[in-house]
């Protein structure tokens, strides 16, 4: 296989969940640091490039009252451009919002 040497050397993942100012407002941080073995072909330059170590941070802010929760998720918070396995460029900053309703 062309990508058999492109394996994760290491990956560290951590989660921090805490209240922010108000008891109803929470923040959940997901932090990932990873290093991948191997290399990819940079399509712009045509050169073979080693995968750099990458640090990606995501945060979810949520405000909950009774059976309702409003949230916003910021993925790749620092808009870090990076490639993952097989020359797949990963998205930059990605924002999702939503509303959750608990039905009892």
Question: Main traits of this protein?
Answer:
single chain, 104 residues, 9 strands, 0% helix, elongated
Would you spell out the secondary-structure blueprint of this structure?
Elements: E1 8-20, E2 22-36, E3 39-41, E4 48-50, E5 54-65, E6 68-75, E7 83-84, E8 88-89, E9 94-101
Antiparallel strand pairs: 1-2, 2-5, 3-4, 5-6, 6-9, 7-8
Strand arrangement in the largest pleated sheet: 1-2-5-6-9
Which percent range fits the helix content? Answer: under 10%
Task: Write the H/E string, N to C.
Answer: EEEEEEEEE
Content-based structural category: mainly beta
Poorly predicted runs of 5 or more residues: none
Count every beta strand, where a strand is a DSSP E run of 2 or more residues: 9
Kindly provide the radius of gyration, computed on alpha-carbon positions and rounded to a whole number of angstroms. 18 Å
What is the CA-CA span between the terminal residues? 51 Å
The biggest beta sheet reads:
5 strands, antiparallel
**Tell me, what's the shape?**
elongated
Strand content: over 45%
- Counting copies of identical and different chains, the oligomeric state is single chain
Tally the helices: what do you get?
A: 0
Average predicted confidence as pLDDT: 91
Describe this structure as you would to a colleague.
- The strands form three sheets. A five-stranded antiparallel β-sheet has the order 1-2-5-6-9, with no helix packed on it. Strands 3-4 form a two-stranded antiparallel ribbon.
- It starts with 7 loop residues before the first strand and ends with a strand.
- The chain is built from no helices and nine strands.
- By secondary structure, the protein is an all-beta fold.
- The protein is elongated, with a radius of gyration of 18 Å.
- Helices cover 0% and strands 63% of the residues.
């Amino acid at each position: 296989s062309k990508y058999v040497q492109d394996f994760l050397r290491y990956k560290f993942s951590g989660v921090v969940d805490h209240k922010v100012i108000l008891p109803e407002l929470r923040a959940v941080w997901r932090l990932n640091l990873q290093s991948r073995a191997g290399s990819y072909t940079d399509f712009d330059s045509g050169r073979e490039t080693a995968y750099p170590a990458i640090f990606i941070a995501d945060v979810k802010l949520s405000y909950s009252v009774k059976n309702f929760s409003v949230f916003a998720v910021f993925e790749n918070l620092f808009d870090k451009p990076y490639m993952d396995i097989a020359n797949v460029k990963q998205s930059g900053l990605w924002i999702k919002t939503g509303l959750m309703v608990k039905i009892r």
